[in-house]
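User: Assemble these into one structure.

Assistant: Restating your components, then the assembled model:
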Amino acid sequence: MFFGTSTKFAFTFFLSACAFTLPWQLNIALAVFVVFLEHMAKPFHARSSQTHRTFRRFAVHITLLAVFIVFLNTVFLRGDGAKIGALGLPLYTEGLEFGLAVGTRVMLLSLSILLFFTSTSLKEFSFLLLNAGIPTSLVTIILLSSHFVEQLPSKIGQIFSAQEARGAPVRSHIFGRARSFFSVLSPLVLSSIAESVERGTALELRGFRGQLKIRKSEVEKLSFPGYVFLLLGVLAILWKVLWK
Amino acid sequence: MQTLKEQIRRELSGPSLPLISFCVALNLLVGQITGLLKIPIYLDSIGTVLAAVLTGPWAAVVCGCLSNIMAAAFGNPTMMFFIPPMVSIGLFAGFIAKLGWFRKLYLCFVGGILQGIIASLLSAPISAQLFSGTTMGGADFLVIFFRSRGFSIFESTLLQGLMMDPIDKILTFTAVFFLTRNLPERLVTRFPGASNIQSRTG
């Protein structure tokens, strides 16, 4: 496949390397390109409309965060740069430049990593890891973790409501809330450890030894563009480390 | 004396696998609970320490690495670069658990302080070199505060780490001490680190 999971991974690596090496103007251009890709390029489409909404929300959130980082640095970071006061605020050029470099770096990095995860299903990601030689037991942990991540918020909500009904001070002053934190956490840990023991026994009874081999037909080779992205990413990092 | 390979295999099999998965999810979701209760702490390594105590250091290292990778997938990519401090938390917590430090509360305090110092020493260069001190967390304000006082990026991130990390780790270690003390023995004995803690019978 021209733009399979491994090529997308190489592309994400390339974008992440760019975030650390390119100037802020190019980082902004690449961040816009990433948002464009999510909308227009089929291999990067979100897996569901909900994931698409999450990506859009996150893009807005990370842009606002980048603006906030720029603002904070421009106001507080004086350095030796010139003062460019505006709107009654003391603003500094050194802080502005520093804030733009950091803010756009975080923005491009976040968007590129999220682009990969919103357009890749858990199954594709697992195959990518198995392909890369990651042991099956580790891939199993990742899959089980995603199951727990999905399941735990509702469990937490239930425990939270139950403790509130029992009169735990979940909405009182800070020390009361800190105390009730443990009254939420303790039953959650206990029930999840009991569940872990059951799941572990089930895995052992089914003969799970963590030595799954994937079929040859399921092995996805890295395409030519994938190699190019990897090479460019490595070169960008080397350039940053050796020449900067 | 079991070899390293045997130890890793022992820690990454049976009920330990689902436990590590739960601990990864716990690392990711404790932030959600603290947000819900509006407590100004992170406790984002509580799962790693729990895995270190119940199973061992290698399971905790796996738990810590996967937590940071998954945190990146869930919208905080800077976490991916903080795997070395997480590895140190897993190894250190596993090591002191084997020494029996999780049987006494005051030793958990000492462990938390030491761990906080180690974690801040490891995370400060990463934060300063790669992100210039901005990691999308609440502590960014402190870094900017120190920078505005004339400290360098590295000094600012180190000072911020030394101020925040020991408190966070003391709370994490104490939380794990109380959580594991309340676990019934019949459950704990299924894990390789059963001897590390003082569980209740039942």
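Chain B touches chain A through 57 residues (CB under 8 Å).
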